[in-house]
């Protein structure tokens, strides 16, 4: 196991001008695409290899850009490793979640061998089954079934996400190296066990601290990791508030909730009696066009009365 600190490359932003979008082949309406994560994941592993290989070959045939000499693939983008192998390029897997999460998903197949998964019916959700301790995952003592990824909670082994996450975790072990967004002091035991299984493990987390090593510039500020168009109009209001006086609520790009859950959050924020900045995506409700979203302004005004 290795631990390292990343230093920003002098031309680290050069590649942004060479970015190339391509379609995954998932036939979902754009505004609802994030609501069908299983279809997106399944489409990614089935259709992305060809376009990505074509892109790398095209870049390496061009005299206008540097050659691709290393591919850093997301931990669930196994097609990157396949392309790298075919083209003789070094490939590294980047696992953004915890080491414990990764180790758990590495053992999805063992859950099947031990007859734990799939569950017979939905009763496992409330009959105490998930409280069952499992002490056989290396470096993860005293954990329970409910402490492992929720993707194990299936009654059918053909479940897309169970198969996808388990197989992609196994694919990571075929790479030259694995980078993890964690650090030794946080997950020492599981990292030690993981290093016995795979020698080229590098912990570089927490990634949020790497921002300290990136100089502020207009180029850096123009690059965003968000999949959504940013709306900066709230910043003028935020700048007028006192320090440490605003509650910030953001559910990320994929989290979904019901109409009732949205209402409960609204009342909870209102009852906090603090100013709040609440990010609500237009596709966040499970019930498309739910009354709470369509009447969001009225809901907030009622809660604040």
Automatic annotation (TrEMBL):
- Give residue spans, biased composition: Polar residues: 1-21
Give me the ranges of the annotated region Disordered: 1-22
Query: Could you cite one Gene Ontology molecular function of this protein?
Result: quercetin 7-O-glucosyltransferase activity
Q: Where are the transmembrane segments?
A: none
Protein family membership: Belongs to the UDP-glycosyltransferase family.
Please identify the protein, giving its name as recorded: 7-deoxyloganetin glucosyltransferase
Q: Whose protein is this, by species?
A: Rubus argutus
Q: What is the lineage of its organism?
A: Eukaryota, Viridiplantae, Streptophyta, Embryophyta, Tracheophyta
């Amino acid at each position: 196991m290795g631990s390292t600190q990343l230093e920003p490359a002098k031309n680290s932003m050069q590649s942004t001008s060479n970015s190339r979008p391509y379609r995954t082949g998932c036939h979902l309406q754009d505004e609802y695409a994030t609501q069908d994560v299983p279809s997106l994941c399944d489409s990614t592993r089935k259709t992305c290899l060809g376009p990505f290989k074509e892109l790398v070959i095209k870049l390496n045939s061009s005299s206008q850009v540097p050659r691709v000499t290393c591919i850093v693939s997301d931990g669930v983008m196994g097609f990157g490793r396949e392309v790298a192998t075919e083209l003789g390029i070094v490939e590294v897997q980047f696992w953004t979640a915890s080491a414990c999460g990764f180790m758990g998903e590495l053992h999805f197949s063992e859950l099947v061998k031990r007859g734990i998964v799939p569950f017979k019916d939905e009763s496992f959700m409330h009959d105490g089954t998930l409280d069952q301790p499992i002490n056989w995952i290396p470096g993860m003592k005293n954990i329970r079934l409910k402490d492992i990824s929720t993707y194990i909670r299936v009654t059918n082994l053909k479940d897309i996400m169970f198969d996808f996450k388990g197989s992609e975790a196994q694919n990571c072990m075929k790479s030259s190296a694995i980078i993890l967004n964690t650090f030794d002091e946080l997950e020492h035991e599981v990292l030690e066990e993981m290093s016995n299984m795979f020698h080229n493990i590098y912990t570089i987390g927490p990634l949020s601290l790497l921002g300290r090593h990136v100089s502020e510039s207009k180029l850096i500020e123009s690059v965003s990791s968000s999949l959504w168009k940013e709306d900066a109009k709230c910043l003028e209001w935020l700048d007028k508030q006192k320090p440490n006086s605003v509650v910030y609520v953001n559910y990320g790009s994929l989290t979904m909730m019901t109409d009732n859950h949205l209402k409960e959050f609204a009342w909870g924020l209102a009852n906090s009696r603090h100013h709040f900045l609440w990010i609500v995506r237009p596709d966040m409700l499970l019930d498309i066009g739910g009354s709470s979203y369509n009447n969001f302004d009225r809901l907030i005004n009622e809660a604040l009365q």
